Amino acid sequence: MRAAERPSDPAGTGWSARLHVVTGKGGTGKTSVAAALALALAAGGRRTLLVEVEGRQGIAQLFGIEPLPYEERHLADAPDGGEVRALAVDAEEALLEYLDMFYKLGAAGRALRKLGAIDFATTIAPGLRDVLLTGKVKEATTRTSGQRRAYDAVVLDAPPTGRIGRFLNVTAETARLAKVGPIKTQSEGVSALLRSPMTAVHVVTLLEEMPVQETVDAIADLTSLGFGIGKVIVNGARPALPAGPAVTAAELQRGLVAAGLPADRDIVAGLHDEARDQLIRRELEDSLRADLVELGLPMIELPLLPDGVDRAGLSTLARALVSAD
C-alpha cells in the first residue's frame, strides 16, 4: 500500500474504505450483512471480494453452494455488471503459500503438511494462525492487476465481537516479537493496513441488550487499539410502532365489537397482554437505540426480513446499506 494512498468512493456508495471488516455478536447476522455489503459495493461494474476466516463455511451455506476451497471464486453477479467473488481462508493453506512465497519451500511445505508439522505449528502458536489469516486478507486488498487494484473493495466476515480486538491486533503483537525477517515485515504491513484509513471496522448488532452491550464494549476496545470504526449496523430492525398511550382492555373490547369480531374475555385479555408486551419492547428498543446513538458513529438500520435471508433478501439488505447514506 502506498503511503500517500487514501480510500476513494467513485461509486458514491458512502463506504469509502477499501477493506471493510464486519463483526458482531454471534446470532446478529454479521455474515448476511457482510455478504449484502459485498453485493452493494459491487454494483455499477465494480468487483468485490467476500472473505471468511473462521472455517465455518458460512458464505457457502448462505448462498446454498458447495463449501468454498482456498481459492477466489465467482459468487454472485451484482447490478450493472458488478461481480462478487468469495474466498474461505484456511490457515494451513495460507502457511504453505507463505512458505513458498518468502522461502521458496513449496514442495518442502507440502511434505511438512503430510507430517502434521504445519497443524502443529499453528496449534502451539495460535497467534500465528491469525497472522496468516489477516496476511492473506491484506494481500487480496492490496493486490494489483495491471494499473488498478484487483478488487475495488474487500469485505471480511470477521470473528465475533468477543475476540475481534485480539484477532486484529495479533499482527502488532507478532511484529514486536519477531525482530527481523519476513514474518516481522509482513506483520508490520498488516498492522499498518488495518490501522490505516483504508480499513473500517463495522459492528453489527440487534436491538437487544446483550448484542448492544457487546457492541459498545467492542467499539471501546477497538478504538483503544487504534482501529478505525466505520458504522454501527442494526440488523433486523422492526418498523417503529406509533407512539401513544397504552390501550386499555375496555378500549380493545369496544373496538372488537365495533368491527364485528369476537370480544369475549379471553380474547380481550390475550390482545391486551400482547399490546402491553409490544409497548414494553418498543420502550426497550428506544432505550437501546439511544445507547447506540450516544456512540457518535454513523448508524444504519436494516429491515427485518420476514421470509429469512435468501438471495432476494440479500439484495434488499444491499439496497438498504447504500440508500441509508
From TrEMBL:
GO terms for molecular function: ATP binding; ATP hydrolysis activity. Residues 20-174 form the ArsA/GET3 Anion-transporting ATPase-like domain. Transmembrane segments: none annotated. It comes from the Bacteria. This is Putative anion-transporting ATPase. It comes from Micromonospora lupini str. Lupac 08.
